[in-house]
Amino acid sequence: MKPYVFERQVQTYLQADVIVIGGGPAGTAAAISAARCGRKVVLLEKSAQMGGMGTLGNVSVFMPIGNVTGIYREIISEMLAEYLPPDHDQSIAPQYSPFLMRQYLNEKMKKEQVQVFYHTEFIGTVREGSRIKAVIASTREGLKAFEAERFIDCTGDARVAIDAGVPYHSGREEDGLTQPMTLMFMMQNTGKPVTPLLPEGCYDYKDIADLPQGRRLYWEQNNDGTLLVNMSRVKANGAKIEEVNYAETEALRQVFSIAYYLQKTGFETYTLSHIAPQTGARETNQIQGVYTLTEQDVVNGTRFPDVVAQTNYEIDIHSPDGKRTTDERKISGYDIPYRCMVPEEIDNLLIAGRPISATHVAMSSMRMQATCYALGQAAGNAAAISLDDSSSMRLISMDKLHAALQHQGVRFLV
Ligand SMILES: Cc1cc2nc3c(=O)[nH]c(=O)nc-3n(C[C@H](O)[C@H](O)[C@H](O)COP(=O)(O)OP(=O)(O)OC[C@H]3O[C@@H](n4cnc5c(N)ncnc54)[C@H](O)[C@@H]3O)c2cc1C
Predict the structure, then answer these.
(1) Which of 162, 270, 288 is nearest to 224 (CA)?
(2) Best mutation site among 181, 369, 371, 375 for ligand 1, i.e. most ligand atoms within 8 A of its Cβ?
(3) pLDDT of residue 322
(4) What is the DSSP string of 263-285?
(5) What is the pLDDT, as a whole number, of residue 339?
(6) How far is the CA of 154 from the centre of ligand 1 (A)?
(7) pTM
(8) Residues 151, 132 contacting (CB under 8 angstroms)
C-alpha cells in the first residue's frame, strides 16, 4: 500500500523546561524530581490516570527489589506506611488499591506542581538536528505542539525515542518474541456463596494444567477481601497493532474463564469485581542506548560508577512461546547505569522505565515498578542538571547527578 505524506500546521499549546511523556512509575518520578529542581514540568498522559501499568493495568502489587529508596520509598511512606521498612536495604511486596493509588497520584502531582494533561497522546516529534524541539500530541482539541528544552520518554514502549529515530529492538534476540500479555483482575469476597458465571465464548477449565499459565497466581495480602489475580496469558507483543487486537479479546475471555474456575475451586464466595481497562504488556521495545544492560550484568551483580537504580528482583520471564512455563532465577542484586537511558542520536532526550537499553533477559528483572520509579527519578534530575549546565543529556556530571539524588533521599547500597 502506498505511504502518505501528512503535513499540517500545528499550534503550540505550551512551552516547558521539561516534558515527560507517559505517567507510569517512570514518568511520575521523572516529573516530580525535575519539578523539585525548580523546573517547569509538564506531563502528557494518553489515558485518564497516572500510575501506568500499576493502575491502568491493575498490577497493584509492588514486587521486591531490595532497595526501597527515593520517591518510591516516599510513596510507600505516604500511601502504604504499614509496609515501610526501617532501612533502604530491605525488600517489601505491598499490595495496594489501584483506585486509591490513582487518587493519591493526582494529589501528589498537584502538590509537586507538575502540570498533568490527560487524554493527551504523543504522536510525533519535531526534530531539529540532534535535538527534539517539540512533541505533537492528540488532545481533546485536536493536534497540539508541546515545546520544551528536555524530553523524557516514559511511554513504556519508547514511542518518543523510536519516532525520533533512536534504534531499538523488541523481544528475544533470536526471534523477537516478547513476554506474553496479561489482563489483571480482582475478585471480592462477598462472604456468601455466589453463582459462578461463564459467559459465551469462554473456556471451562477443568484443572490447573488447563489454565493459561498452568498455575494459580494471586495475592490476598490485605484485610479487605480483595483477591488480585494474575493468571491470564496471551502470546502477543503489546506494541503491535494486530497482536494487541487479538490480546484484548482473548485475555478478556480468559479472565471470565479463570474467575469461573476459581469460583468452583476455593473461591466460592468471591465475585468478579474489577477488570483492568487494558491488557498489560510486560515487554515491548527496548532502545539502543549508550550502554546495554545484559544477562551477565544481572547474574554477576555488576556495579557501575554511573549507577542510577539498584535491584535484586529475579530474572522473571513468562514464556514468550505461549507455553505454560516461567523462567524464574534468583539473583543477588546489580546496578543499572545512567547510560542505559541515554540514546546516542539525540542530545535532549532520555528514556526511562521499562524500555531502557537492556537485553530480553536483563529487562525481565529491571521492569518492576519500583525500579522504574528509580530510573524516572534519575532521569528527572539529569534533565534539570543538563539544563543548569547547558550540556547534552549524555555529558552531564555523574557527581552532580549522585549529589542531586542523595539530596532527594536516594540511597545506593554498597
Ligand atoms: C501483567 C503484568 C504484571 C506485572 N506485575 C508486576 C508486579 O507484580 N509488581 C511490579 O512491581 N511490577 C509488575 N509489572 C511490571 C510493571 O508494572 C511495569 O514494568 C511498569 O509499570 C513499567 O513502568 P513504566 O513507567 O516504564 O511504564 P508503564 O507503567 O507502562 O507506563 C507508561 C505510561 O505511558 C502512557 N503512554 C503510553 N504511550 C503514550 C503516548 N503515546 N502518549 C502519552 N502517554 C502514553 C501509558 O498510558 C502509561 O500511563 C507487571 C507488568 C504486567 C504487564
Answers:
(1) 270
(2) 369
(3) 83
(4) HHTT-TTEEEEEE-SS-B-S--E
(5) 98
(6) 9
(7) 0.98
(8) yes
Q: How far is the CA of 100 from the centre of ligand 1 (A)?
A: 17
What is the dihedral angle through the alpha carbons of 289, 363, 46, 12, rounded to the nearest 10 degrees? Answer: -10
| H helix or E strand, kind and range, residue 258 | helix 241-264
> How many residues in total does the chain contain?
414
CA 232 – CA 211 distance, rounded (Å): 8
Within 8 A by CB and 6+ apart from 136, the residues are 10, 122, 123, 124, 125, 126, 143, 144, 145, 146
Nearest-CA residue for ligand 1 atom 12 is: 368
Query: 54 CA distance to ligand 1 centroid (A)?
Result: 6
> pLDDT digits over 40-71, tens only?
999 999 999 999 999 999 999 999 999 999 99
Residues of the chain with pLDDT under 70: none
Residue range 191-221, pLDDT digits in tens: 999 999 999 999 999 999 999 999 999 999 9
Q: Which atom of ligand 1 is nearest to the CA of 370?
A: 11
Find out whether 342 and 37 touch, Cβ atoms under 8 Å. Answer: no
Q: Quick count: other Cβ atoms within 10 Å of Cβ 216?
A: 15
pLDDT on residue 375: 99
Three-state SS string over 191-214 comes to: CCCCCCCCCCCCCCCCCHHHCCCC
Distance (angstroms) between ligand 1 centre and the Cα of 346 equals 24
Q: Nearest residue CA, atom 21 of ligand 1?
A: 53
Three-class secondary structure of residue 248 per DSSP: helix
pLDDT given at position 414: 87
Atom of ligand 1 nearest to the CA of 159: 41
Q: Which helix (H) or strand (E) holds 136?
A: strand 131-139
Which residues, judged by CB distance below 6 Å to any ligand atom, belong to the binding site of ligand 1?
21-27, 44-47, 52-54, 56-57, 59, 61-63, 121-122, 154-157, 159, 182, 184, 230, 280-282, 353-354, 367-370, 372
